[in-house]
């Protein structure tokens, strides 16, 4: 008895991406050093504030030096969301 041929299923052919997406692009060379640099700068800012007994880095703003230090560090931490 003859056997029937198996059916071919229509599989969609993979299409090449003609345009590049932002997801596919490599990270710029400067991204990681700036990211880690901002995190370390924010940490250093807070450490200088405490070790100088609130005299440095900016004596006139007082306790706001902590906010500035954390703000700089947070920009670095927010950059980690785009890091690949």
Average predicted confidence as pLDDT: 86
Question: Total helix count?
Answer: 2
Please trace the helix and strand order, writing H or E for each element.
HH
Largest pleated sheet: none
Roughly how many Å is the radius of gyration? 27 Å
**What fraction, in percent, of the residue positions are helical?**
40-55%
Low-confidence stretches: none
| Distance linking N and C termini | 59 Å
Q: What structural category do the secondary elements indicate?
A: mainly alpha
Quantity of strands, as a count: 0
What is the beta-strand fraction? under 5%
Global outline: rod-shaped
Give an overview of the whole structure.
With 84 residues, the chain is mainly alpha-helical. It has 2 helices and no strands. It is rod-shaped. The N and C termini lie far apart (59 Å). The model has no long low-confidence stretch (mean pLDDT 86).
Question: Tags for this entry?
Answer:
mainly alpha
Explain briefly what this protein structure is.
With 84 residues, the chain is an all-alpha fold.
Strands, helices and their partners?
Elements: H1 31-51, H2 64-79
């Amino acid at each position: 008895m003859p056997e029937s041929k198996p059916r071919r299923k229509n599989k969609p052919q993979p299409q090449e991406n003609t345009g590049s997406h932002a997801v596919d692009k490599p990270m710029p060379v400067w991204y990681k050093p700036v990211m880690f640099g901002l995190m370390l700068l924010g940490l250093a800012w807070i450490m200088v504030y405490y070790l100088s007994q609130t005299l440095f880095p900016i004596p006139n703003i007082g306790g706001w030096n902590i906010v500035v230090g954390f703000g700089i560090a947070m920009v670095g931490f927010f950059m980690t969301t785009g890091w690949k």
